[in-house]
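My hope is that you will study the protein record below before we discuss the fold together.
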Amino acid sequence: FGLASFSRQRQLGMPSDYTSSESYRLFRSWVAQQRVNVAVGTSAEKEWKYYDYGPKDVAPLIMIPGASGTAEVFFKQIVSLCPKGYRVISVQFGFYDTHESFCQGLDWFMDRLQITNAHFFGTSLGGFLIQLFARFRPSRVLSLVLNNTFCDTQFFHDNAPCAPMFSLMPEFMLKRILLSNFPQQKMESEMANSVDFMVEQLETLTGPEIASRLILNTLLSDFKPGDLTLPHDNITVIDTLDDTILPDNMHEEVFKFYPDARVAQIKSGGNFPYLSRSEEVNMHVEVHLRKLGQLGTLSPEMKARASPSNSLRAIPLSSSSSSSSSSLSTTTTTTTATMTPSNDATPPSTDDAVEDVQQEVS
């Protein structure tokens, strides 16, 4: 399983198991990839790729991948959460070589999509970046879901002596650096499938995209505890208990940064639990959103899609609740403005939310 399995598949011209799965096929038929150019100040425009799906009258969940991920790696969250009335925007950002420029780019990306504020999910590097964005523009961040992430880049900086050369390295060498961090040992099938899919997605990234992620991952930061004004009640930390590329002390540091955050620990799942343990991750994300009063907006047809018997039916949503295009081609149109949830609604208790979501999952 894992990288060896993927190498054999590529030699035979075979896609990964996830790429040929029914849920991925439905994801590609439900929502088209969109692109938007974002300019910050006098700098050149950066292209952002993204998938935007779900009702436009709720605050979205913006999902940021790790160093090796693309906008497609959260397809299981889109297929699961959007039919329940949640709006998910999975993004893939362009080349940024400083943390500040990334935050400015994300700020402008939200402006282009006319999004006032949003919930954020970030994994690994993506989780670190959304923490920085929450400090940079706190008024736009409703909550954070942090998955297998970190709060300090010192470890990566100290172990990357070639960091100043990332922007000059050829693409194959940059990909080799990322692949060297992938697990090489045998593993159970779902975790192996997640690794295969991530390697497949890594192959689609360009040299500048990979260089940007490696630079942001190794660049020293002055981020420290207490920098965020966001209440810890609005933060959920989702971690796996098995081996990941992050040292244990980096996991523990996140808990020290946010001692009052909600913690959801998954027994196994490796580096990519949003793929290998997607049902558990989706449940914790939904509990997080419900706790904050984000209950979703279910139209009759969305209720039908969310039911267990119809959860994988390829019935496109109406134009009022989804992107107008369901083809596989890309489009450059931007989405309409979003509204924040009403403050008058009384959020359900965490226990009630967990019970409701567990019943739906079962």
Notes: The first helix runs from residue 3 to 11.
